[in-house]
Amino acid sequence: MRDTGEPTESRGRVTYWTMDVVVAAILMGVGAVVMVNSYELGAGWSSNGPDSGYFPFYIGALIVLSSTATLLITLFSRKPNRTPFVESQRFQRVLQVLIPSFIFAIAIDYIGIYVAGALFIAFFMWWLGRYPLLKVALVSVLVPLTLFVVFEVWFLVPLPKGPLEAYFGY
After folding, report:
1. How confident is residue 2, by pLDDT bands cut at 50, 70 and 90?
2. Measured between alpha carbons, how far is 164 from 110 in angstroms, rounded to an integer?
3. Are the CB atoms for 31 and 67 separated by under 8 Å?
C-alpha cells in the first residue's frame, strides 16, 4: 500500500472535506427542488402582492447560492480538511441512538405512539442506562400513560394510535 501522507488511523474514513462536498451537493439539490416547485406555484408578483411561491423561490435560491459557495470553497481550498469526520467509536454511539430511533418512528405507524414510546423508553433505560427493571417498567409505562392523558383526554389532541388504544375504544 502506498503512503498518502495521511495518518494511518484516518485512511478509509469519511473526512470533513468529503462531508462538506456531499452536504453542499445535497442542499443544492434541495434548493433546486424548492425553486422549481415554487416557480410552478407562482413565484412572481401579482396585483394582490406576492404569489404563493414568491418567498419560497428566493429562499430556495439562497440555499442553492450558499451551497454552491460552500462547494466551491471546499473544492478549491488550498488546505482541505482531511481529518476524519467522526471516529468509529463515536459513530457507533450515534448508531446506537439513530437505529432505535428510526425503528421507533416506523413502529408508530403500526403500534401507535404510546406503545412505541413505552418500548422506546424501556429499551434505552435498560440497554444504555442499565437501570433496574422495576424503574424501567415504571417509567416506560407511566410516561406514555401521562402523555396519553394530557394529549388525548385534556387537550383533545389525537396522536397516532395502535391496536391497544383501539381495544380500549380510542
Report:
1. very low
2. 11
3. yes
Distances in Å between the alpha carbon of 35 and those of 63, 107, 169? 10, 34, 45
Instruction: Classify 87 in phi/psi space as left (phi over 0), alpha (psi -120 to 50) or beta.
Output: beta
62 vs 56: CA distance, rounded Å: 10
Contact criterion met (CB below 8 Å) for 34 and 60: yes
Q: Quote the CA–CA distance of 68 and 74 in Å, as a whole number.
A: 10
pTM of the model: 0.63
- Residue 141 to residue 117: CA distance in whole angstroms: 9
Domain-wise residue ranges, the chain: 8-75, 88-167
